[in-house]
Each structure stands twice: as structure tokens, then as C-alpha cells.
């Protein structure tokens, strides 16, 4: 019995030692693919966990990673940070010439419009470069036209059937689906672009001779027209007349709606020259702003309807005054800006004012000067080389349309497109190689026009071997091969070519200046048939 107890004690000790030496059991939530075939056939006995299974945290099956931060896209609207980058990216005259079969110099423009959605531009006028009104309806010497063009491609989309009338006003609806136009004798028409049909004739009086000016409210609910003695407003959809108010003198900048369509500005000379602001919900007068002149008053309405900017076009050394539209009180003066002003417009956010004309400090090139409205200070300018009388923004502010006060040509401005970028890069590459004597590389970016070839050949210069031609041109030039100091501006011209205004640097680091005292030099380039951009007109100081 005693021996038995000893053996029993030894056996228990052995079992305890063996048990302590065994590896720990696998947890009960072990994945099935990690379980061997033997364990599947004979499950091992497991010990109860001291922790409740409800308290054991489990890892998510598909952990969610934090989102990758995306860079904020640069703004595309015209604003204080990028206004200097805006360039002319499209011109419409060449397509218009081809469609009408007339040269630019034999056409007259009387009205223009830019659809707020940026799809279309419209131009109206007549054949024959008449001063005053088109006389097609009087003597039949010319033909009127209203043409709609694709804003991006300049392709003609439609010509409206008005060929014997004076067209005085154009305006697109905000959605770009309709074009409203006015003609003399007085008729106000809504044209549906998709169907190519007249949708409404809002007003017609063959016995009333006036040049109505029109506007469409940004919310597409109202169409306003100012005659010689009245303002009429219609509902855009129904064509029903909703207002008849005095407006005894029309001007080209009126009527104007505010961006939220709650205000309408008109010009009234009944009791002295004044701009009247109406509340479009009640058609009651909110305020009036006095002007010292009844002729040549031009104005721009800020998008929020809070500010009116005014100037008198024919005044010597004109100034621009800013007025509170709600109170009629003057709130600012922009003095000594120009010798001549041709047009003004607010940016879409209302923070900038664009002023076109000739600055007092620069008699050669026309400018569009950009002013900070709040600070009433200029912050930069765009070189336009023309006198735009109208500046019309798209609703999103990413582009704007200007005209040429001398000829029926329209230009679209925006941030540079791919074609403009390639032209600038080609010009930079050409002049970098040219100024460093690498004429083989320079020749890759140069293709003279046929006129240039004939010109150079008249001086005995051979252009068939472009590297040798460029080498000789550089050696025989009075100035030599000058490097580019900077590119002042770039633009697409109406002929389809591109122009770049450049500064060139002299060996001492100063800018090249021509005998007339101007440092800006125009260079021309083109997109060739194979899609490459090449310089095709060299600086005039390199010509023999």
C-alpha cells in the first residue's frame, strides 16, 4: 500500500511536468486555412479564456486608409492672382470673312454678345464700312447680318434671316439656348438656336424708329429693352410684358441687370442726365445717380448690384467715379487713368474693374488696365493693341469677350490654351538657340512666310538652307542676335496667326529700344499643317 502511494505520487508528478512542457493551444478563432488536416479530424481540447469573447477586439477585415490629399486646382476665373496670365486665345473675323465672303475692312459691326455659358458669340452689322447707321434699309446698298459662332472654334453656327434692317442690340439667355435681338424699325425678337426659328416677337412697331438696347436677366426670367422714351420688360418664357417705365435716353451700356437679377439700371435724361436703379421685384426706383453730361456716359454695374462705375467718354482726361447703387452716393474716384477710355467692366467676383483705353503714360499701345475696386488702385494691365468698347464675361469668369472699336472683330480672352502654350514655347526655344549661335536648333523652330522668302531673296539671301540663312542674318544684322528679356503678351490674331510682344536684351543688360523710343517688339508665329508651332516673322531690327 505504501509502495502504491509512492508510484501514484510519481505518476502525478510526471503528468504535471509533461503538461507544463506542452506548447500553448491555438486560439479558437484560428483561421480555417491555418488548421491542419489532423486537427480538423480530431479537434484539440481548449481551455476557457479568462476574458469574455465579447471583450476581445477584432481587426477589421478591410482596413480603411486615409484619403490621399488632392492638390487644390488653380482658379480659372479672372482674379487678382492670375489676371496677368489672361491672353487672347481666339479671334472670329477670319471665319466671319469666309462665311460672308467679305473682307474685315468691308464690314460694319453694330452689336455683339457672348453667351454666359461660354458656348457662343454673336455679331451683327452690315456689309459696307458705313459711318453712322447701316443704310441697307434705306438705299439697299448693303446687307445686314446676324451671325452666331462657336466660341471655341469660331465656326459659324447660324445666320439669322435679318438682311435688310438696322440691328441695334444682341443678348443671349443665360443658358445659351436663345438669342434676343432688336432692330430698327422697332422689333424685339427671341430666336431659338436649336430649332433655328423665331420663338417670340415681343414687340413690333413699324412706325417707331429707334435703336433699342436690350438685356436679359442672369436668372433668365426677364428681357428688358430701352427705346428713345421708355423701358419695357417682358417675361422670358411667356413673352408677357411685366413693366413699362420711363427711360428717355438710351445709351449703349444700358439697360444692365445685376448678377442676382434684383436690380436694373437704365439711363434717363428727363430731368437732367441720371442713371436710375430699379428694384425688379416691385419696379420701384431705389436710387438715382446724376451725371454732368447726357452724351457719352458709359457705365458698369457690379455683379452684386452694389456699385456703379461711370465715366464720360468724350471728356478730356476722363476719370472714373464709383457710386453706391443703393444710396446714389459717390464712394470713389479713379483719377488720371487714361487720355482716352473706351470701355469698362467688373470681373465676375466684383473685386476687379477692367478699363480699356490709352494710359496717360503710354501713347503707343492700348491697354486694359486692371484695378482693385476696394483699394481703388491699379494692379496690372493687359496689352490689347485695340480699343475694346465692350468687355463681356462668361458666367464663371473663366473667359471674356472684347471687340475692336475700329473693325467688326471679336477676341476671346482666357488662360493660355494648348496652342498658345506651344507657340510661346517655340518662340522661347527659337530665340534661345538663335542668340547662342545654335542655328541648326533655331531652324527647327523657324518657317518664313512666302512674303518673307520673297523679301529676303530680293536682297540676295538664300532661305533654302535655314541654318545658314539664320547664321548670315545674325552676322549681318546691326544689332546681332539678341536674347529675349521677357515676353510681354501673346495673342491669337484674326488671320489665324499668333503675335507675341517681346523685350530683347542688349549686351549691357538694358532693353533694346528702337529709334522711336519703344522697347516692345512684335513677333509673329503660326501653327503649321503638321501641328507644330514655328516663328514665321523675325524682329524688324534683324531685317536687312
Structure description:
By secondary structure, the chain is of the alpha+beta class. 15% of the residues lie in helices and 36% in strands. The chain has 8 helices and 32 strands. Strands 1-28-27-26 form a 4-stranded antiparallel β-sheet, with no helix packed on it. Strand 15 (263-268) and strand 16 (274-279) form a beta hairpin. It is globular, with a radius of gyration of 37 Å. The termini are far apart.
Roughly what fraction of the amino acids lie in strands?
A: 35-45%
What characteristic shape results from the CA principal axes? Answer: globular
Give the CA-CA distance, first to last residue.
134 Å
Q: What share of the residues lie within helices?
A: 10-25%
Furnish the topology, listing elements before pairings.
Elements: H1 2-21, H2 37-41, E1 87-91, H3 93-100, E2 107-114, E3 120-127, H4 136-139, E4 144-150, E5 156-159, E6 166-172, E7 178-184, E8 186-192, E9 197-205, E10 213-216, E11 222-226, E12 231-235, E13 241-245, E14 256-257, E15 263-268, E16 274-279, E17 284-290, E18 297-301, E19 307-312, E20 320-324, E21 330-334, E22 338-346, E23 352-359, E24 367-372, E25 377-383, E26 391-393, E27 399-403, E28 410-414, H5 418-435, H6 439-443, H7 450-458, H8 466-476, E29 484-492, E30 498-504, E31 521-527, E32 533-537
Keywords:
8 helices; globular; disordered N terminus; four-stranded antiparallel beta sheet; alpha+beta; 544 residues; 32 strands
